[in-house]
Design goal:
alpha+beta; Jelly Rolls; three-stranded antiparallel beta sheet
Length: about 290
């Protein structure tokens, strides 16, 4: 039986495509985690493959929220990363659900992405920007317009699927846990203006805002990201794309979450492990 708080979290997630859960970790924990991340020799490989970070991903405070939004038994395929970056990349709205051509109104995407940020983004730039409710929408681009008019190349889309949800800069503080649907449109490194910190601008416009107009960000920007899902055709497509994409070659070669001790701990926590990326990498698969 779910509590009222758990039910409200599910309702908010289903409506908005994301949730921000306050104070999952203490400030000392985040400070210690930031220190550990800063000292890593390499940030390649998944989080479970880093001995000093594994406990974060398997922490009951994290898994309880993920399982509340999905189900008690969840799948992990090695899709997690450690970021500690001093620079800022190009900002643009995107979704993580790759090779996804389904109607987002009529179908579900039972896959979530979680983010643990190691610095403040409520009063600083550099945080997460999302479009509220965008997990039920599609991007208004040439390919999707063609689908609307002709039904090609990937099947018809209804007109009501073409909407943009309201942009929101999430007030992420150290210790918070952000979780979003893999179809939710989002971007990192959001800019907050000094005089209008709550104004949410287009990320493409933010790329050209001078530093003197923006609230500073805290660098290096540290964050942990991970993906969990439920067994489904959508998850199978996603795992295949992650396992074979050329940009992930170094990631899989540095991962070792198939270690017997890690597998045993995951089994205890009712996490099903998928090793598609590891198997391909070790088989001599030629990425292209």
């Amino acid at each position: 039986m779910k509590s009222e708080a758990e039910k409200k979290l599910i309702q908010a997630f289903q409506k908005d495509g994301y949730v921000l859960i306050r104070g999952v970790f203490g400030l000392e924990e985040i400070s210690d985690l930031r220190n550990k991340v800063s000292k890593l020799d390499s940030r390649e490989g998944d989080i479970l493959s880093h001995d000093s970070l594994r406990h974060i991903l398997l922490d009951g405070r994290v898994l309880s929220h993920v399982k509340n939004l999905l189900a008690d038994r969840i799948v992990y395929c090695g899709d997690s990363t450690v970021n500690f970056l001093d620079g800022v990349g190009f900002r643009f709205f995107h979704q993580d659900s790759t090779d996804d051509f389904e109607d987002p109104i009529a179908t579900e995407c039972p896959i979530v992405r979680l983010g643990i940020y190691l610095q403040d983004h409520a009063k600083h730039s550099g945080g997460l920007k999302v479009r509220r409710g965008s997990h039920r929408h599609v991007y208004l681009g040439p390919v999707n317009i063609r689908r609307l008019l002709t039904g090609k190349p990937n099947g018809p889309l209804p007109q009501k699927a073409f909407r943009l949800g309201k942009g929101v800069n999430l007030d992420i503080e150290p210790g918070d846990l952000a979780i979003w649907n893999l179809r939710t449109w989002h971007t990192g490194n959001a800019v907050r203006l000094k005089w209008f910190p709550n104004l949410c601008l287009s990320p493409r416009l933010e790329n050209y805002i001078p530093a003197w107009m923006a609230l500073p960000d805290i660098r290096p920007r540290g964050a942990l990201f991970a993906t969990f899902g439920l067994p489904s055709a959508r998850l199978e497509t996603y795992i295949k794309e992650r396992a074979t994409h050329f940009s992930n070659e170094a990631h899989w070669k540095a991962s070792r979450f198939d270690d017997s001790s890690i597998a045993a701990e995951c089994a205890e926590k009712n996490i099903e492990l998928r090793f598609d990326g590891l198997t391909l990498s070790r088989s001599g698969y030629k990425y292209s």
